[in-house]
Amino acid sequence: VRPVPVVAIDGPSASGKGTVAARVAAALGWHTLDSGAVYRALAWLALEKGVALDDPAALVALAGTARLEFRDGGVAVNGVDVGDAIRTEAVSCAASRIATLPAVRDALLALQRASRRRPGLVADGRDMGSVVFPDACVKVFLTASPEVRAERRYKQLIAKGFNANIDQLRRELAARDAQDRARAVAPLQAAPDARQLDTTAMTIDEAVATVLEWVRTACAVSDAVRVG
Ligand code: CDP
Ligand code: CDP
């Protein structure tokens, strides 16, 4: 049986991973996995329950007892929709902290791999191509300059009606990227076989078209699948 094809999109914060992944998946008619939401959901729950963010055993136990659901872009914890609650800066920092713990990463592996369903999966995060789906048919390492990424996140927050300070965002993005890059396990780095895509001067449409072209040439997508 042919394995379910996976497109892995990794990269730093606000490089456009989620947006590009969603658009590529929509064009292909494939499923999506927002793996950042997996770490965010557990971090949110730990903050709610007062579980220490540096206690691997307690966090793994929490992950084992909680019902974490990721469907069609929605995120639910024990049946409660937490789609918006997990996007705060406090949860971003907490997610990045628990993501440094190897035991926590292991505990969340099966959950992420369970998203791999026919006809295909577009997964975005930090280690989709390097650890979770090493056999992905296309691995993209999406980047953009720190300045452009801070601007993108700023505009995104303002559009959603949140308050935001561009200087503070710049500092927070830099701190989280540094923590994600420096960790010993599954650090943020391009897999050796990943294709770099610098979107600093690219529109979303251009980035999506580039990835779809890579999928067309590298993944065995049937003619029945719409590409582009
Ligand atoms: O998932 P990630 O944190 O990497 O980024 P995102 O949430 O998908 O994208 C951050 C913001 O940048 C979104 O509002 C996108 O619409 C925007 N974006 C952009 O303006 N130009 C691009 N080439 C890619 C994303
Ligand atoms: O949207 P943004 O790119 O800012 O963050 P995210 O993708 O939602 O991920 C939040 C945090 O979860 C990251 O800063 C990472 O520390 C962690 N993460 C990870 O370690 N591995 C992944 N595959 C995805 C996220």
From TrEMBL:
The Cytidylate kinase domain, residue ranges: 7-216
Subcellular location: Cytoplasm
Top-level taxon of the source organism: Bacteria
Sequence positions that bind ATP: G11, P12, S13, A14, S15, G16, K17, G18, T19
Quaternary structure, from the entry: Monomer.
Protein family according to the UniProt entry: Belongs to the cytidylate kinase family. Type 1 subfamily.
Function according to Swiss-Prot or TrEMBL: Catalyzes the transfer of the enolpyruvyl moiety of phosphoenolpyruvate (PEP) to the 5-hydroxyl of shikimate-3-phosphate (S3P) to produce enolpyruvyl shikimate-3-phosphate and inorganic phosphate.
Entry protein name: Multifunctional fusion protein
Native organism taxonomy: Bacteria, Pseudomonadati, Pseudomonadota, Hydrogenophilia, Hydrogenophilales
Gene behind the chain: cmk
Residues of the full protein shown: 440 to 667 of 667
